[in-house]
Amino acid sequence: MLKKSKIGAIADTSDNEIIKVSGLTRDFGSGKGIFDFDFSVKRGEVFGIVGTNGSGKTTTLRHLMGFMKPDSGSCEIMGLDCRKNTAEIMKHVGYVPGEIDFPDVGSGTSFLKIQAEFLKVTDREYISRLADMFKLDTDAPLKRMSKGMKQKTALVAAFMSRPDVLLLDEPSTGLDPLMRDTLIELILSEKERGATVLMSSHIFKELDDTADRVLFINNGRQTDLIEKESFSKGKPRTYRLGFRSYEEYDSFVKHTALDIAYENRKYLHLDVSLTENAVNKLFEETAGFDIRYMKFRPFTLEDHYTEILEGGKYSA
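User: That's the sequence. What structure does it adopt?
Assistant: Structure tokens below.
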């Protein structure tokens, strides 16, 4: 269960929306910035924001942290204006910035101790557990840490107070795949606890595995907002076929009546798209070919991103 908020009744918003962004606009000129952003994040929800570099992900999170003043519109966390009530809001928020710049306080241990005192965190065992999860040597000097070690330190600092709200800007930057999986498990654990998570990412697997809803942005504008439970409904079923020879591959491409969604002759595999009731047709078409493998490819957020925002088909 979510721990009782220090804000008390303010945190128990009647509509259960912990984060609210309304008409948020910040114009940097030359078409750069964010324009008329409108979305909300519910209590206990993992909400993802995905977009290209420079599309507005970091600008949005920096407004939520109260670091930037919008030209128009507003954003709130737990019913409080992010710009006017930053100090109060920060008591309940864990934040991983997109660009990490630690103060000159020596080691990671010193930094985490200062953060713990500021946040009134008394459970030092949990801090140690987080460090162990991420295989973080907190005794290392901050200035000599690699990008990945700095990212791990920032993650421990953000999660150690078990905050009501987590704002994570590209949280897996610099992490290897194993540590990325550890982060995903931690986010899901926080969701189960009842925390509200807003996370920007360009790594679709993170959002596929964690997010309840995902906002797609492009060039500073919202383009699509989808619910993970429903976004793939009605989409064709895609199967990847791997062939043993170029002759088999070329013959299949030439003679098949199936819809080929993607081809990669170099690696002798391709994707075919089927309606839900046409699987038997797939087996009929491949019966006379020497197939190395056949596997179902679920429709992913990356497919959706490519299809909707780039107007093309997925190619991997």
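The two ends are 40 Å apart (CA to CA).
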